[in-house]
Amino acid sequence: MPRPGLKTGIWAAIAALFLLSVGFLGWQYAVRGTDQSLTSGLKLGTDFTLVDHNGAPITQAAFAGRPTMVFFGFTRCPEVCPTTLYEMAGWFEALGEQGRDLQAFFISVDPERDTPEIMKSYAEALTDRVTGITGDPDEIAKVIAAWHVYAAKIPTDDGDYTMDHTASVFLMDENGNFKGTIAYGENPDTAIAKLRRLVGAT
Amino acid sequence: MKGIQQKAKPMKRIAILLSAAILGMSSAMVSAHDYKLGSLEIEHPFARATPPNAPVSGGYLTIRNSGDAADRLVSGEADFAERVEIHEMAMDGDVMKMRQLADGLEIPAGGEVVLKPGGYHIMFIGIDSQFKDGETRNVKLTFEKAGSIDVDFKVQDMKAMQGHMKKDGHGKMDHGKMEHGKKKQDD
């Protein structure tokens, strides 16, 4: 006849095993769920009406129908923004004909200071493949939120300000599905491999 | 040379890039310029070429202190800019953060501080004209103890800049270095 203590122990072990399995399955489900939403379903962005760097109206529809890179930045950015635009120019060059359909947008997180003219001369100095987008600050704020981008005004001593912002390049396929990011300073080979996958060249 | 490279076939491009790299290296050696101020040594000040109408540019240099007391880069002044400020940039995850160093930048005794893309830099704000590759821009730098010195920053385009970034570990930026600025973000 087993002692009551031992019986309790066995039941406890069974219960623990059960909880572990449930936990594991749940975890697996969660992981697969996340993975699916990241690779095949997640749509970023929202409807907006802004202005492209030629002064023409532009909406979310501009991102559809072609593989697209989207980058957030501002023209008073001495470092990350010109470097990223410069690197984008290099990626386009490396992709050559494979990148024919690929398009790229540079959305200002500082629309109060970035006029379409400033955006145009800034972008075009580095590449003719990237279109600047700016416009109504409220619309920009909406877009920033819908892309889950971090952007914050940081005051400087002299009453001026600078901007902190997400520096990654977002990748979307021709159906507007989020396909990943290229980090700031990412190895060019990795970046180009990601873009080749995006345009379906591999 | 830019025009030649754009027109060149991929086969040729490698050769052109190689010779450009060699040329670039040798011109960097010729153009490396140093300054001395008391126990401070200032090495190769350079600035980023800008797109037209860009209101800012960044300046970079190495400051070495052979003295036995720490000094501090406290301010800068230039005819071509409304303001010259000392900033720190860092990546916090995927977010780029930039902070003005209001108290300046310490140059430790017997040590050196490298201002480089992706880290500490001098911000030229409200520049009066485009920074073009090959130009030089004169800046007066002021240190707490050593005093002031006029320094020529050599303007370099992105191609040359990339060389610096690679050499200095572009992309390997310090994380968690800018905790002091975090409180300000909540507004």
List the topology elements.
The complex is a heterodimer of chains A (202) and B (187).
Chain A: H1 4-41, E1 49-52, E2 57-59, E3 68-73, H2 80-95, E4 103-108, H3 116-124, E5 130-134, H4 137-146, E6 151-155, E7 161-166, E8 169-172, E9 178-182, H5 188-198
Parallel strand pairs in A: 3-4, 4-5
Antiparallel strand pairs in A: 1-2, 1-5, 3-8, 6-7, 8-9
Chain B: H1 2-7, H2 10-31, E1 34-37, E2 40-48, E3 56-65, E4 71-77, E5 81-92, E6 95-100, E7 105-107, E8 112-115, E9 120-127, E10 136-143, E11 147-156, H3 158-167
Parallel strand pairs in B: 2-11
Antiparallel strand pairs in B: 1-2, 2-3, 3-8, 3-9, 4-7, 4-10, 5-6, 5-9, 10-11
As residue ranges, the low-confidence spans of chain A are 31-38
> In which order are the strands of the major sheet of chain A placed?
2-1-5-4-3-8-9
Which class best fits the helix and strand makeup of chain A?
alpha+beta
* Sequence stretches where pLDDT stays below 50 over 5 or more residues of chain B: 1-7, 26-31, 166-187
Ends apart, CA distance between termini of chain A: 68 Å
Q: State the helix count of chain B.
A: 3
**Total number of strands of chain B:** 11
Largest interface: chains, residues each: A-B, 40 and 40 residues
What percent of residues of chain A adopt helix (DSSP H or I)?
40-55%
The oligomeric state is heterodimer
* Biggest beta-sheet profile of chain A: 7 strands, mixed
Principal-axis shape of chain B equals globular
Question: Strand-residue fraction of chain A?
Answer: 15-25%
Biggest sheet character of chain B: 11 strands, mixed
Helix content of chain B: 10-25%
Number of helices of chain A: 5
SSE arrangement of chain A, N to C: HEEEHEHEHEEEEH
Radius of gyration of chain B: 18 Å
Structure overview:
The complex is a heterodimer of chains A (202) and B (187). With 202 residues, chain A is an alpha+beta fold. Chain A has helices at residues 4-41, 80-95, 116-124, 137-146, 188-198, and strands at 49-52, 57-59, 68-73, 103-108, 130-134, 151-155, 161-166, 169-172, 178-182. Chain A is 42% helix and 22% strand. In chain A, the strands form two sheets. Chain A has a seven-stranded mixed sheet, sandwiched between helices. Chain A has a two-stranded antiparallel ribbon with strand order 6-7. Chain A is elongated and about 85 Å long. Chain A starts with a helix and ends with a helix. Helices cover 20% and strands 43% of the residues of chain B. Chain B has helices at 2-7, 10-31, 158-167, and strands at residues 34-37, 40-48, 56-65, 71-77, 81-92, 95-100, 105-107, 112-115, 120-127, 136-143, 147-156. In chain B, strand 2 (40-48) and strand 3 form a beta hairpin. The radius of gyration of chain B is 18 Å and the shape is globular. Residues 1-7, 26-31 and 166-187 of chain B have low confidence and may be disordered. At the A-B interface, helix 2, helix 3, strand 6 and strand 7 of A face strand 3, strand 5, strand 6, strand 9 and helix 3 of B. Strand 7 of chain A pairs antiparallel with strand 6 of chain B.
